[in-house]
Specification:
Blueprint lengths: L4 H4 L5 H14 L5 E2 L11 H10 L15 H15 L9 E4 L1 H13 L5 E6 L3 H9 L3 E6 L4 H13 L6 E5 L11 H14 L2 E5 L25 E6 L12 E5 L1 H14 L5 H12 L3 H23 L12 E5 L9 H12 L1 E2 L1 E2 L10 E5 L4 H16 L1 H7 L8
Helix pairs in contact: 2-12, 3-10, 4-10, 5-6, 5-9, 11-13
């Protein structure tokens, strides 16, 4: 039977192959150190949990909620943008709550894309940046993931050679998976380009609070004129260790936010009201918990960079995010990221995310999530050291790995 049209546009989910092997290894008794999924292991701060448990006792909060988010939550997000970025937002027209930034991106794609529209998306990048638009019928033209001259050369070529002209540029800094960061000067140039060519900017700022230097990552909305062309997506998943709560936001240009609100009004009634009230408490509360979370990820980053490098696998230190974007060691590079990820799982009991899952230009890398405690990260390094020390022998004896998805 022929596959459904939209399903045919989606390639096999490469992470699923690693997940299957991981599940089998665990079923066989292996102690797998899972650094593959960006799934925060830190507990949600207690004052946020307390607010949820308090509000959920009121049966009135069990009714349908507001698709665009309750007013107090939208005001709290606008206040956060004012404090953090100096950006003024109208909570009624320029802020909408989403079920995580992933849902926001997917529904924005549905709201603004027509079949055949061209979207400029980084490669490698978080999968929803590409596949949300593919599912909406748009076409993707890849641009570099790193900010710099090549990025702007790619934008110029895209405008000249794309038919029809691109409708949107996707940005993601600090980047998932590469951990690249962008500064305000870069954003100024992107905004100038977008305004000149009447192209929207869709910015993913999910990792804005997970940074390790002195300077916090900026928002593109800090650039004068950016509000005319930009929607930006944020999430509480990483900032407040609330991944399962599914709470995020889109903010910015009122036309884009209105289009997203229109689509969402047909699809959902918003997050459970007690979750929205707890999210409001998170945004309005002390930032001490954010600083503590940032410190935990910084210490974990330092452990990975130091212990993995001493084990024989050099890991560049990311400036931000909860990931290390690690080049595959030279002797394994020809295998590609999926086969190397399988080797690490089978020979070192360490799960990572294959870079090919983020786009073809990620195939010489794997993504390492900082989602285990420091002791487990050091154990992963010891396992990898043993694997690398006997790699030549094991590669000679390796059984061909299944690659069908």
């Amino acid at each position: 039977m022929e596959e459904f049209h939209k399903i045919k546009r989606l390639p096999p989910y490469v992470f699923e192959q690693v997940n299957r092997l991981k599940a089998k290894a665990r079923a066989d008794g292996a102690d797998i150190i899972d650094l593959g999924m960006g799934n925060p292991d830190l507990p949600t701060p207690q004052h946020i949990v307390d607010k949820l448990t308090e509000v959920v006792q009121d049966p009135r909060t069990h009714r349908y909620s507001a698709s665009k988010g309750i007013q107090g939550l939208r005001k709290a997000q606008a206040a956060y943008y004012g404090r953090r970025f100096g950006v003024k937002l109208d909570p009624d027209t320029q802020v909408i709550a989403t079920l995580g930034s992933k849902e926001g991106f997917a529904n924005m794609a549905q709201a603004i894309s027509a079949p055949g529209d061209v979207i400029l998306s980084p490669n490698p990048s978080y999968p929803i940046h590409t596949f949300g638009f593919l599912m909406a019928g748009a076409s993707i033209r890849n641009i570099p993931a790193e900010p710099g001259p090549d990025f702007f050369h790619a934008l110029e070529r895209a405008v000249i050679h794309s038919v029809p002209k691109p409708i949107a540029i996707i940005l993601c800094y600090p980047a998932n998976p590469t951990a690249c960061c962008a500064d305000l000067e870069f954003y100024k140039d992107v905004v100038a380009f977008a305004r000149k060519h009447e192209i929207f900017i869709l910015s993913d700022l999910a990792y804005s609070e997970i940074y390790f230097g002195e300077t916090p990552p900026p928002s593109v909305l800090q650039v004068p004129g950016a509000m005319e062309v930009t929607a930006e997506f944020t999430s509480l998943s990483k900032t407040f260790s609330m991944p399962g709560w599914r709470m995020g936001f889109a903010v910015g240009n009122d036309r884009l936010i209105s289009a997203l609100a229109r689509v969402k009004s047909y699809l959902d009634y918003g997050a459970f009201t007690p979750i929205q009230v707890a999210a409001t408490a998170a945004l309005n509360g002390s930032e001490d918990c954010i600083k503590e979370t940032r410190g935990v990820y910084k210490r974990r980053r330092d452990v990975v960079v130091d212990s993995f490098t001493r084990a024989g696998w050099t890991i560049p230190a990311p400036e931000a995010s909860m990931f290390c974007w690690a080049p595959i060691p030279e002797k394994f590079r020809s295998l590609g990221s999926l086969e190397y990820s399988k080797l690490l799982l089978e020979r070192a009991d360490v799960a990572v995310a294959p870079g090919i899952g983020f786009g073809e230009h990620g195939d010489e890398y794997v993504r390492i999530g900082l989602v285990e405690n420091e002791q487990r990260l050091r154990q992963a390094a010891r396992n990898i050291r043993r694997f690398l020390e006997t790699a030549d022998q094991k590669l000679h004896n390796v059984i061909p790995l299944e690659t069908s998805g």
